[in-house]
Amino acid sequence: FVARCNAIYAMRRAFSSALSRDGASALTSGRMYNWRVRAVYSALDKAGKADGPLCAEDLYSLGHLDQYHYGGTDACDEAAALLGLDSGSTVLDIGSGIGGTSRYLAATTGCRVVGVELQPDLCEAAAALTARIPGLSDRVLFVQGDAADPNLTLPTPAGGFDHAVSHLVNLHLPDRGAVLAAAHESLCEGGTFVIEDFVLVARPTEAEARTLLDLVKAPSVTSIDGYVSELEGCGFVDIQATELSVPWTVWCRARSDEYSLTEAEAVALHGREVFETRQHFYVQVANLFAGGRIGGGGPFRG
Questions:
Q1: pTM over 0.90
Q2: What angle in degrees, to the nearest 10, is found between the helix axes of 272-290 and 263-270?
Q3: Region for residue 83 given its phi and psi (left: phi exceeds 0; alpha: psi -120 to 50; beta: otherwise)
Q4: Which of 11, 2, 13 is nearest to 189 (CA)?
Q5: What are the tens digits of pLDDT across the range 89-146?
């Protein structure tokens, strides 16, 4: 598969993301994700689709504007195959962002998805865009809030969700332990969860550590072994993970190079500041993985 510069874990049992309301939202708000709300609407306007019905492909064809994780729809296809999703499956999408993963999984497999997103503007945009796709809004629902909040009301199926996915969320959480502590409450017994996350291959340099914290906003990055151990301590079983740093490195560098080639179009659509901010971000992340101390893993089912 094409890399996602991070680690994916498939596990039998439940998992629920615990997003720190004050921590994670402050870390990821603003330049990292929220600019994409404006960017999506700008791209749709340019395509003559500012209003009216959409099809799912209108959105996922926008690439990184719709799919916030590495690997794009290839990563979604991989998760769907791993989980064996079909029209009878129920899925919890933790940290659903602008809704790209939720929409794609529902549109391509027929499953039902509930996405939970902490940031209100992302969640509102996810719901609004999905409502414009005929026949999809009855299978995809977005809930704004902290997925670990015991007072958060989710439309949970009887017995729990069959599966859960979480793409590039946990690295942003100051207290990842809170995420794992809430795990078993979301999915049914025997359910499977796929996580996509950054991992450490070796101790980062001081400069890399600063980039992770200050630019990527990632205070919770550990080795694969450390991640698995933490999951096991919370009751997860049959955890399987493997490092796939080489393909992730290739993917991140390709993203950086390709984005640089879109300068004229990106500036016209989103403005010079957004282009330069994203270009800097993509270059720095590509450099992180090229250094060989930040890597990723691949999904395997136990």
A1: no
A2: 130
A3: alpha
A4: 13
A5: 999 998 999 999 999 999 999 999 999 999 999 999 999 999 999 999 999 999 998 8
